[in-house]
Amino acid sequence: MADVDEAQVSEAQIAVHWREEEYYEPPASFVAQANAADPAIFERFSEEHFPECFKEYADLLTWDAGWHTTLDTSKPPFWRWFVGGRLNACVNCVDRHLATRADKPALIWVPEPEDEATKSISYQELYTRINEFAALLRDFCGVEVGDRVTFHLPMLPELPVSMLACARLGVIHSEVFGGFSGAACGERIADSESRILVTMDAYYRNGELLDHKAKADEALARAREVGVEVDKVLVWRRHPGEYGSQSPMVDGRDFFVDEVIDDYRGELVDPVSMPAEAPLFLMYTSGTTGQPKGAQHSTGGYLAYVAGTSKYYQDIHPEDTYWCFADIGWITGHSYIVYGPLALGTTSVMYEGVPTYPDAGRPWRIAERLGVNIFHTAPTTIRMLRKLGPDEPTNYDYRFKHMTTVGEPIEPDVWRWYHDVVGKGEAVIVDTWWQTENGGFLGSTLPALQPMKPGSCGPGVLGVYPVIYDEEGNVVEAGSGRAGNICIRNPWPGIFQTIWGQPERFVQVYYEKYCRNKESTDWRDWPYFAGDGAVQTSDGYFRILGRVDDVINVAGHRLGTKELESASITVEEIAEAAAVPVIDELRGRAVEMYVSLKPGVPASTDIEQKVSKAIEREIGKIARPKNVWIVADMPKTRSGKIMRRVIAGISNFADVGDVTTLANPEIVDDIRQHVQGVKAARGEVPRELTPQEMEEIKAFGQAE
Ligand code: WTA
User: Fold this and answer.
1) Ligand 1 centre from 334 Cα, in Å?
2) pTM to 2 decimals?
3) Distances from the Cα of 63 to the Cαs of 92, 166, 599, in angstroms?
4) Among 323, 620, 625, 664, which residue's CB has the most CB atoms within a 10 Å radius?
């Protein structure tokens, strides 16, 4: 955080400028059918009944053996849930539904090209496909319980099939978002020491068939540099039998799944009964340092948590048609496209492409045609659809009972468009706040029982007790108008178990800051530090202000500044680099890079492009900076630290704060004139920042 005086001034400003939004009550038609409509549920999940309250979630699953200890706190903060219990996640998501709904669609996959047929995959067919692929993984690849397998798969049904095949075998899957670069995938392969990569030849994005297999070759090369050798690359084909990539198949290493799987047709694989505490998957995410963290999620606790929250917060009934418009490459897709909805036996829709292809009516056409009644997406998608087709939803005859927003703060006026136009005023909305590390929702209204308030996620969810602390660990009272660090006072079943291979970092990043007593085995001494700033209003609702750890949330994707900076300095001419967020009307935030050059190197647009390319190569297209600014020097403290808040202020046309104590204060005006001059000429002057955004910019770069 900024120094104390400055923080107090800005918090006071927030208190003054913060407009309270009005409440929206859930429609009676929603309440009448909701899974959680009896307020007695709050009592059942009150602190007094913690941790036993979570039996209610675990009872939604089918267990091979019951647990003897609901929550074991003997090695804090490595909480263990449902200890002694055994289950298989694939059985819970698929096998157990066969008796009652074998022919019901489990997945409905919508390809991006509109003239290509939608594929409906029944629970029976899903079962068959999972078993065949599990047999292939086990017998052709030789994977065993506890091994890691990396996927770099786009939004095709082959992704959930691959995930559930691993789950069936007790193998830990690690899906890397398809839009990440080969290099980023390679680092994740290396970190998890996967010997198998599962990928796809190509997929459609914005009307174009993208060559994806090429990234596998880059990934393997990068993993090899770090000393990890991949044995086999399994390539699913977008069009079985036709190869859609230019990249050559490497003999003895690369195999087409649609060919090899012929040897496993009709095979059934016994599901492996796993301890509740066995890891189910890894999901890599960014933080303050340059190295991505592999969030390790458990089998029993995780699955119970996503099933419970899908039931009560997503209000999923088996007969619903549920569409979560996110990518399975992110935690939202794991929890709320695959594991949660399938555990409840519903129909989960997945879509291959971009929301606005071929036009901004596409999602609503899909919703109308498939009879979607629950819709779930991110503010960035909502903003884009509003911009390109503000009236499009009115042209389609669908009815949503329930909608979700997730991943970034949603501006109240965007929320209102979502409510009035997309939801036609008939759908309840949940604004769900949570993180990769959490498995499932942390903050949300319970849709039939708590009114909505635009821009606020609501209170802590059932059995989750949040608190806001200041830097010293004092509680920031609700209604004080002051911001602080939101923490969760208690463990919950969906919490990740550790950072893969880095238990010390796990403790340090998430628990050290507010741990009261390291010797204590009482969970009350170990609040979870979420890394977000927040304000709590007197109604108990939280407004999330964004990350306090120098992570930039671009269109709902977490990008670490250090990763962006390391990528930039792979360009030979670059001496130093600093990444900052700029307010972006569609993506929420975009990245701008500031770079200084090695002595004697002249500035050129060529270098700017090299920086962009390097970021694309090391991370992926999503991280491409909006601008690269070449500066003579970075504003620095006397101890040589780059003042990111100063350049963030310049990029956003905001106050840069006190610069008199810098080692080189004169540079600030030079940079401002240059950057703001160019931006003004290009029409890139942003709107005036809200107090909340000003706070974020001022605090930027303080986490180191
Ligand atoms: C932000 C995505 C405001 C927050 C599930 C968090 C949100 C980070 C919300 C996690 C929300 C997520 N309102 N901000 N409803 N949901 N965030 O790990 O800063 O990709 O820490 O998980 O996104 O992003 P992640």
Assistant:
1) 15
2) 0.95
3) 8, 18, 65
4) 323
